[in-house]
Specification:
The protein is an alpha+beta fold and about 110 residues long. The chain has three helices and six strands, in the order βαββααβββ. The N and C termini lie close together (about 5 Å).
Length: about 110
């Protein structure tokens, strides 16, 4: 998942850089099995943060991830989010040794 956040360059009330605020938000949204890298930039009076998020979750399609984010992301996450790209690869676990069926699916970002 690639996320692009943009805001006007202003000092945060706590003095945190924009990239740190985005990192904190991602940490609260994806506490386990997910990693990300952030690329902060500044230009024309704006702060930009590009986040590349990878990991494993209980999602099988893009809509599942969006619903997850809609339920949990803070208001400013949506105010700053200016673009995204999602790609979910569904991985099936090995067959059950008793019945031979795949019972569990997990989505990978």
């Amino acid at each position: 998942m690639d996320l692009c956040f943009i805001r006007e360059r202003v000092a945060d009330a706590h003095g945190q850089p924009f990239a740190q605020i985005i990192d904190d938000q991602l940490r609260s949204l994806f506490p386990r099995h997910t990693k990300w890298s952030l690329e902060p930039k500044q230009a024309d009076g704006l702060d930009y943060v590009i986040a590349e998020v990878t990991g494993i979750g209980a999602w099988e399609k893009d809509e599942d991830i969006l619903a997850y984010l809609e339920e949990r992301a803070a208001h400013h996450f949506w105010a700053w989010l200016q673009g995204y790209r999602l790609q979910v690869e569904v991985k099936e676990h090995a067959e059950c040794s008793h019945c031979g069926k795949n019972k569990v699916k997990a989505g990978a970002l």
